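User: My collaborator sent over this chain with a note saying "see what the structure looks like." That's all I know about it. Can you take a look?
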Amino acid sequence: MPLSPLDIHNKEFTRGFRGYAEDEVNDFLEQIIKDYEIILREKKELEEKVRTMTQQMKHYNTLEETLQKSIVVAQEAAEEVRRNSQQEAKLIIKEAEKNADRIINEALAKARKITIEIDGLKKQSKVFRNRFKMLVEAQLDLLNTDDWDHLMEYEIGLTEIQNQARTDQDDFELLTDDIK
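Assistant: Without extra context I'll predict from the sequence alone. Here is the result:
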């Protein structure tokens, strides 16, 4: 068991013949007591500092562990965000490709439809041209016949000519309606 300042103070020495000077021994013991008290006080202060520092160390270790866990969680969250972003980007690209394919297919279908309509219009215009040509040729043949000479020889009334013109006009309209 360690000595206390009180143990040193209460220690009594036996006297021997021609022993040490009592005042010197007492003064020296007083100095030892003071120094020992200082050392004990410093020891208590150091123990308190060690205890405080140990608690701080535990606190800092806990903080460090928490920070490390937070870093790991943040890294995992960042990785998950990155993965989700990549998946979302892939989905967006896939959707855009689908839309592009749909738009291209619709445009091709419209182009085919327009081509078919153009071909139909070409055929109709050929038919119209041929019929109109036949009509013009028939009219030219009619003009080139000798019947016109005979008409000049005869007097025909104005009403008969108007009736014939109406009939010819009706025939022409029927012919153009067939073409349409």
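A starting point for your reply to your collaborator: Residues 22-144 form the longest helix (123 residues).
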